[in-house]
């Protein structure tokens, strides 16, 4: 204590810890920035001397010249490299989005199964987790692509399921709706239904607060939306027609084709990530103290109600942060698509565009920037959700 | 307490001093004006270490090759590389060291080969590489004489009855990325007005596996590779290469821009094999030509003039070593692709100009 009093007399600056602290931090910043500048200028000089090129993104507006097997937006070889890049990005986005949804659903089911008191159910879940968590994802992907989907019958002898759904080693062809002219009007009707549903739920909630008996608000909301939607579907002149796949020439035509590569990538990612999510869910559920379950039981809640109303909301707080990192992993892991021929962001940009243009630094800056933005966006959304469920606490 | 604080302070001062020293070392490079002076010094440094001297110091040639293409560059089960392209790697090694085995083949994918060469990890690419203008300019390559005139083709299943591009309407086509084939495919199919689905793989093996399993109706790459790869399919006889050529594919060795002496060595080793065939000199009979009176032959065999010295090689019989150990162009071709091999690829364009082909080597004089 006395020392602190003594230090109230300020020492000269070269012995002042505060000044020294600030100074050393500044120094570290200077060194880091200096090193960065050094490597950057080294790269620029190297590029100029060795290859006589400068960093430039102008090639992005040139015609790409190559075709991409599957695309969510209109694309042809006359379009620009930038367009090709976006096609790859959307393909990545599609796989990541569907992958996250299915992996979460499967992961929760398996995580809950793992905790089941039924011996068989919990064994099955733990065997699943142990197997798929311990196989490298790349191996799993190539297994799905080459040993499962590529071994399906050829397209001429495709397995035809009712629908019709064509299963072949080209992929899965499913019937798909095609919007007609009245589709926009139908969407408007549906929006009106959602609005009406919201109004009804509001009044139901108010009534619930008054009477102390909460009606099934979500159910009423869904019923309202469905009813309004159904009326719109009947009244309007067919807002959507069903396009069914059929076999013609080399391939199936019509409908929607989920290619073999897409299916392999998606299944691989879902199965692999679900194993991790299951463990996250299990840890979350086990983190809720036993007393909560006992209290719920003594209040007369059945096991399903206990899980849904008591355990899960509390477990979510523990689950969300590691779940977010699993989502990020899934998104980043989707770049392994290159191994099985699915045209995702990395395959299109890091392979084909890079090879055609030879612009390594520009392309990799763009690719890394894009994956970084995707990841930051995912964690941003998950953080919002995390904050919302944390507010519920007390 | 007091001692601890002193220690902490001493540590801080020490780290400051170290930091300053590092900063002092780094700062000249960070300033743009000093970079300019570095620039002046750099080319002089490069001049000293020519590719030839690097190779000679190392004691072996590092050749960027293919490990997956039987007949051209293939890694066999005993770990040896063999093939047409590999033989040209060996020829260069023979010219430099007098020993065709002073060679390391560095297998590379289509995509990474140019980066490996530019970064100096290899000395020359001989890996069924197509000579194109953008590779010649943008990628900073110099292409040696074409060793194999090829064209991109399509292989389909016989039962499909496909004979022309138009027959492939709506088909799936397997293609390998990192090559010019992807662009040629898009161009030619667009020109023919044919819709197709491109299934792009990073790897030759995968592309052909997918085709073999029926994922694709056709597979496309250089015709020579199709012939070579057909032998590896489950039932080779079920497949046929259709009579459509999508592109010109002159394949040959490539070196880095900026080392002309090294470029000359690669060029003249290739020409020497063609000249040897032209003069009827082979690995079997080369010794009998040692007393030849033909000045063209005498120059090729290093009996007259100092042509090997002109490309920086001290061994006056540099081309004799090539011919003795590898043979002339016809021998290299026949050994790897000729009638006695499974490929039985007709010479076609790859005959000497005197036999109706377009191989025409400039004279040594």
From TrEMBL, chain A:
It comes from the Bacteria. It comes from Caldilineaceae bacterium SB0664_bin_27. PANTHER family: AMINO-ACID ABC TRANSPORTER PERMEASE PROTEIN YHDX-RELATED, MEMBRANE COMPONENT OF AMINO ACID ABC TRANSPORTER. GO terms for molecular function: transmembrane transporter activity. The keyword Protein biosynthesis does not apply. It is found in: Cell membrane. Gene3D superfamilies: MetI-like (1.10.3720.10). GO terms for cellular component: ATP-binding cassette (ABC) transporter complex. This is ABC transporter permease subunit. The keyword Protein transport does not apply. Its main location: membrane. CDD domains: TM_PBP2. Residues 89-382 form the ABC transmembrane type-1 domain. Keywords: Amino-acid transport, Cell membrane, Membrane, Transmembrane, Transmembrane helix, Transport. Belongs to the binding-protein-dependent transport system permease family. HisMQ subfamily. The chain crosses the membrane at residues 20-40, 93-113, 125-145, 183-204, 216-236, 262-281, 336-354, 366-385.
